[in-house]
Amino acid sequence: MADHNDPNAVNHIFSDIDYSPADLYDLFGWPTAEGKNVTLALTFASAPAAGVLDTDLLYRLLLTSHPRIAWPQTNEVSLESVLHYFDAVKEKYLGELKTAEIRVTVKTATSVTVKFIGFPSGDFSAEVEANKVVAIPAPNGKTIQAFIGGRDDAFFNDLTGFFRSINYAPQFYHVPHTMTEARELPIPKTLLELEGNDLFNYRPDMPTWGFTQLDGTTPKLDLPPGPWTWKGDKYKKDANGNFRFVYDGRDCRAKQNCNAIIFEFPHDFITPDTAANRLVNSWGESWVRKAAHKIASIPDDEPSWINHPWKAVREKELDDELKKYKLVDTDGQPFADAALSERENDRQLGANNFWLGPHFIKRLAHLGWGFGPSISALGLKTSFDHDNSPVSIHKTYDLVATAFPRVAKTLFQKLNMPDSSWNPKNLNIPLRRPFEIFIPNVCSIDMDTTGSWPFGRRLEDQVATRFLAMFLDMEAELNGKKYHIDLLGDQALWDSAPIVPKTPPNPLKNDKEFLDHFPYLAEPWPEKW
Amino acid sequence: MACPSVLPIPQLAGYAEELDRTEQDVAQLEAKLQRHPNNQELRIRLAYRLFHRASLTGRMEPFQALETAIHQNIQQFGPKEDLCLLKANLDFRFHRLAETQRDLEMCPLLPGRFDARVLLADIKFQQGQYEEARLDFEALIQENRTWDNLARLAHWKSKLGDPAEADRLYEEAEDDLTAKQMRAYAWLELQRGVLALTHGHYAHAWKHYRRAQASYPGHWHTDEHIAELLAAEGRFEEAEAMFQSVLAHTLKPELQQALAELYLFTGQAAKAQPLLDTAEAAYLASVKLGGVHYFHHLADFYTDVRHNPLEAVRWARKDLELRSNFSTQSALAQALHCNGETSEALQYIKLALASGVQDARIFSIAAAIFESAEKTSEAQNYSKVALRINPRHADFHMHH
Lengths: 529, 400
What we know:
A: 18 strands, 20% strand, globular, disordered N terminus, B: Serine Threonine Protein Phosphatase 5, Tetratricopeptide repeat
């Protein structure tokens, strides 16, 4: 669930909310054609069906290309420094940065209009048939490859394991939408089952509990009356002294489809100075047509903003087309919305999530108290300062200043890559740090790399496991090799760990082979989910 | 005056499609429940879909089926918040205010939830606690500026004297809606149309009704309003045809009464009588089954249509016992007035007017009662106010 079921307004986990084509799933982006092209794929819920689009939806892919500039205060680990960074990002995104845009509006269920706005070659548009690879000629003679339609969902992830790790009740219990306090229950987040955490620990008598089935149902239990807390003081161990992993590594998105908007275009279509502008930043948005504009053929007597200035204020930054739509979801980084912003509808800010910077620090610290001690218990080093707590702790923060010291290393450490393949030209490209990755909430593709996360996001990246790796201490070593973002995906690690099941937390590959050519995502499954 | 029938209406999916989709949803959920009979989420989802289906049709039988389903679910799963909230919404719809409150209290934390607080504010309005209701609506909007709460405050403003602000709020509510909520959009347009109609602005009412019709085609609820407007304009044959068409969709007794009243208004008493018989029988049958939501209609029925002041007073008092507000107070005042009980009628109409309500019909009733009490000066004054609010208040109107 990079961004599945987010925000809550379209969260289908709740019984009274239907699947919505406005529910953005993932944004993938990576360089192709030896770094000359960039490919972007925005995936979303396949409603009404895979390959069938909703005519009330508008999708945007926003893009900028600019130089790779290292943050000047690179060695200063302080709250002031990171807050200064958030401010600088804000200035950049509200200030000088100009974004270009690919806008997709759905004409019929199987045809779309694609508008290219703000690119150096000028604005133009094309009518595109859905579910077909189409070559769109740009005014400057370049060709853009496009595919818009149904695909296999490229995300592979033990969704239920993740929800178990954060004690997310609606996946396991019938939780009415009204009960906002019964979502993430106040039990320590954890990678290892907690002794006596009967609310979430695996139940051998109910192996399908919390796992969504192909018919759309999810076996759930009745939420017992509270308090929904945990009074224990240790991780659960079996008779052999093994911990119980909250994950079992299965692919909860197996055999499920999505709809996708996929483009591949030359880097110099985005920027004339590709030599200088080595980064391509992108994020996606879904918008739903406003009711009033569904019947635009009956005009008002006069523009309503004449009488209603509130409308003018709200709409002043939107062009005429966007004024007719309402923003629902944004997607840039996997987990930026779902894991760090807690899916709140009013936190769908896209790149503008610098407002959430302070919240991001508090939330990361909250997660750290859960995952940090779990990592330590497995004998690994963590980046989170948990005072050598022997077990996960449920702790929330009101003040950024209090949270920051705990999470400073997690925020500032450079995330090691598993090997050098991500940097094929062996350039001096700094490793990325979590605070740079999540703020702003964009998929930031480095055109000199393979685009493997966090230097973009390739289809085969296991980002859920890589997200957890933020809590590993990247200065530590295992078997003579520094920790890296794929360490938790290494089967050998689990084979030697005192844990069952002996599996990486998430599947290592997608249930369907990706294509080696455009549109890269696999064909959709025949079933409609 | 533009005629709606000659305007090009965009062919959007509307009532028939939504009803069809809802029927399919219900069928699919029922099929899934065959395989997972004790799946709580499926059962509750089905109950919500049944509520949706019943609301679409407006007929009593689907509501009764829903009531049974809710009852069974609560018996099997206990008082879950979503079930109790659904039951509360159902009870509120049928004027069972005390039960609504009890439904919410079945779950200890539910009365404090946003959705429940909305209902509690609605109850306050229905019970004549206008200021409390307004403050609650404003607080809810402050918390979460949802279209439905904007509409609630708009309704408050429309009744208590600020139609311009009411229309602005309705328009803002509309702006919050997406193409996935066209029925709600059409409903808001109808409210704006009613606002215009009750102030005598028929052209504006047409504009909104046409937009409602265009945005959500085929809904009997829109046609019902259009029929009333046609009748108000004196286009009786068109109104009659429209009422008959609506009745073909939904046999609601209040619509039978409306058509009968149109016949009476146009001097066709013979045509009216069978419809009135049927409507009266349906009202009384509902009461016999424990229903209370037709008390108001019965009071109006015996006051305005079948002159039986004693019965009118009886039903008006019953309604007032449930919810004492300007609407029930003025209905009782009118019934008492018809029954020659002028002194008590005066008492109740004063109570209604003290609310600050700005409704031409209530001022017109007040004028009649004060005239009868030989308070000519006040009577003339209220007549003027009625005319100022709606110069056309004597035109045909329905009892909503």
